[in-house]
Amino acid sequence: MKHLLSTRDLSHDEAVALLDIAEDMSDVNDRPIKKLPVLRGRTVVNLFFEDSTRTRTSFETAAKRLSADVVNFSARGSSVSKGESLKDTAQTLAAIGADAVVIRHRASGAPMVLAHNGWIDAGVVNAGDGCHEHPTQALLDAFTIRKRRFGADSRGKDLHGIRVLIVGDILHSRVARSDVWLLSELGATVAFAGPPTLMPYDIETWPCTVYDNFDAALADDFDVVMLLRIQLERMEAAFFPTQREYANLWGLGPERFRALSPHTLIMHPGPMNRGLEICSEAADSPQATVLEQVHNGVSIRMAVLYSLLSDQEAER
Predict the structure, then answer these.
(1) Tens digit of pLDDT for each residue in 247-278?
(2) Sheet architecture: strand order including 123-129
(3) DSSP secondary structure string, 56-88?
(4) Which CATH number goes with the domain that contains 130?
(5) Three-class secondary structure of residue 253 per DSSP
(6) How far apart are the first and last CA of the chain?
(7) What domain count does the chain have?
(8) Based on the domain organization, do 276 and 142 belong to the same domain?
(9) CA dist., res. 202 & res. 210, Å (int)
(10) What is the C-alpha to C-alpha distance for residues 28 and 67, in angstroms, rounded to an integer?
(11) Among 2, 32, 229, 306, which residue has the least CB neighbours within 10 Å?
């Protein structure tokens, strides 16, 4: 694996293999000394053009636990804020000897440009590009579902037969786009629910079912219900009348939560807007996997960096 840019680039076997490596990394993360020497002497650059807490911290932790050197690069306060282009930034990173670049960018496609324009020889990991994709989030979602379903017997398993409902702002969600392709590739059945104004125009070409009523979707008894944040910062128009109306129609409030099967997993990629898309009763329940998703993100990102940089070493 030279780059990880999209979940659509992963075959079924490649995805399962990454989840299995993440299981090994999870074992490391449960040890008193959470450290492996496998990437000693390699340099990982976190190149973030958008603000991030969970993703950047998770990638930094993952790289350090694999003994890599880490450079955190933020657009704010850097030469980017003075007008430096992505190409010039990439060539600067190449000059300092970056082996892997983890990039988050407001422009959809920026990681692909960085990976394929010949500006840098490092492996590129997409940590979220605009409204396009967020592949490591989808991998940690799949990893979390698999661990909850199979426990210690997860290795080698896919998600065949699992039914996943993703609810909310599908239009602006890079998580939804990455999840639908990866979870489907792993054998899960995926459905979306949300306001018609927040559905992509080409949704009929995606491997999913679409509901225009949240209660009707919940009546079909899904194994996983994932709530998405309303991304107000990406909206330039009024996609729904009021936040109160959105919460009434599309939020997992106390009444809807109590009607769920006690075996239904409740997921959220974060950050959560409590009282809007999810109530505190649901977010803090044993069915919720929100903190597990954050915890598992380190294992997944360790697996991705290890796989990417190990393959580089094998090619040398």
Answers:
(1) 999 999 999 999 999 999 999 998 898 999 99
(2) 69-74, 43-48, 100-105, 123-129
(3) HHHHHHHHHHTT-EEEEEESTTSGGGGT--HHH
(4) 3.40.50.1370
(5) coil
(6) 14
(7) 2
(8) yes
(9) 12
(10) 13
(11) 32
